[in-house]
Amino acid sequence: MPDKPAKQRLTEAAFALFEERGYDQTTVDDITDRAGVGRSTFFRAFRSKEDVIFPDHEVLLSAIEARLAGSDPRTATVAVTEASRLVLRHYVAEGDLALARYRLTRSVPALRAREIAGTRQYQRLFQEFVHRWMGGGEETALRAELMAAAVVTAHNHVLRRWLRGQTTDPEAAFDAAMADTVALFGNTGETETTVVAFRTGKDLSAVLPGLRKLLGDEGTLS
């Protein structure tokens, strides 16, 4: 344990003590004693005991914002999906810490409130991005809010199933959930493919030249 970075030692010590004694019964001094560091080291890493539970929240917000900022209207739904996937992968990579956090937020009201506030921050980022992508007008404000809420709900649904042991492949579950979510909103301005069906008694080779001329640069036939 002494070879680990101080922040990691503090996090592991805190979660272990929360499990052993309970969140409210564990003090900052208890955590620093278990981690083998001083109080000043603790407060350089965390602002409060509560912050130990959500140590990477601000980092994840920045990662989401950066992923969304790197997209354009043609790749907007991909950006929303991949930005949400960043959070899922982070929690899955945490393993036992994510499971311990889940147990704590279910049993400590203050931590549950903090978790909900954090979720709203994620949702606000998605809402602002989707609203800009849809044009930023009053007529799209509600649709953007609904889509952002659906994205966060889909992510949380998959994460909870993984935390409860109801899925062993959260990536596949996430892909399916996000596909359903994006489909709810239909065409949102990205490039789409048009399929034209027709019936003719003529040979296809006789029809193709006319179709190519009609489509011009807007489509290809092979």
Automatic annotation (TrEMBL):
InterPro entries: Homeodomain-like_sf (IPR009057), HTH-type_TetR-like_transc_reg (IPR050109), HTH_TetR (IPR001647), MftR_C (IPR041347). Residues 27-46 bind DNA. This is TetR/AcrR family transcriptional regulator. Residues 4-64 form the HTH tetR-type domain. The keyword Repressor does not apply. Keywords: DNA-binding. The keyword Signal does not apply.
